[in-house]
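[Automated response] Your request has been received and processed.

Submitted sequence:
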Amino acid sequence: MAISAAAELAPEHVARLVYVCAFLPRNGESLLDLMKRQPPTIRPAVLSGPRPGTTVLDAAAALPLLAQDASPAAQMVLAAAIGPQPNRPQTDRIALTPGNFGRLPRAYVLCEEDRTITPALQRDMIAASPCDAVLSLPAGHFPQLSQPDRLARLLADLATL
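Generated structure:
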């Protein structure tokens, strides 16, 4: 969602958007709108945060969904990094226009073993907002933890398009 919003605000500074098992919204959608288009996945691990208007993930419940294919050491690093998140980026609807976001080339790295954003939802988002290139990895939600070298090669390949 963040790269889509940034591209809408400053398309002249963006050469290509690359989504790595990420939410690819259409105009008017929120992160929660997209999450509701799939089974609950990560939702049961979402807890009320320490302050009003925030949530936090229960690491024990979230890690098997976020990083099931990462090493135990990488999972520990991820667990330590989990902290409160504001709700508004999840609930606010994004405003995207054809003249800004819509004119930019997009690529998507679909993670076939993602338990957070299901491959089915990833495919649905790609169908609704087509990408110039779609590449696949046999990875979970954090390929930068489980397959960093392979992900780096895919990103390098995309840079040459």
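Summary generated for your ticket: The mean pLDDT is 96. Residues 121 and 127 are 10 Å apart (CA to CA).
If you did not submit this request, please reply to this message.
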